[in-house]
UniProtKB/TrEMBL annotation:
Protein name as it appears in the record: DNA polymerase epsilon subunit 2
Organism lineage string: Eukaryota, Metazoa, Chordata, Craniata, Vertebrata
Annotated Gene3D superfamilies: 1.10.8.60
GO cellular component assignments: nucleus
Domain DNA polymerase epsilon subunit B N-terminal, residue spans: 3-74
Length: 95
């Protein structure tokens, strides 16, 4: 997806939740999401928004550091899910 279209999609998704991304936060998130499959993009953005909303927010203006922490949290959750599935798969094969 083109960077400008992705940036607009990200900004719109946050606005629907009453959140505004600072320019540097939107730029970071747009770059981070460039490699995400378009079919999964909306779910990934929603997961990031959920992670942002779990953080203590002093306003609806979201800083880059907040977005970075949310992306990190989502990445760790994905890693744990994949790792857990691998263990379950190995258990089923060798268990």
């Amino acid at each position: 997806m083109a960077a400008e279209k992705l940036r607009s999609k990200v900004g719109s998704a946050f606005k629907m939740h009453g959140l505004l991304l600072r320019a540097e936060a939107n730029k970071y998130l747009t770059e981070a999401l460039q490699s995400v499959n378009e079919l999964e993009l909306e779910d990934v953005i929603e997961n990031i928004i959920d992670a942002v909303e779990k953080q203590p927010l002093s306003s609806n203006m979201i800083e880059r550091a907040t977005v970075e922490a949310a992306v990190q949290e989502c990445s760790q959750s994905l890693d744990e899910t994949m790792y857990g599935d691998t263990n379950l798969f190995l258990f089923e094969i060798y268990g």
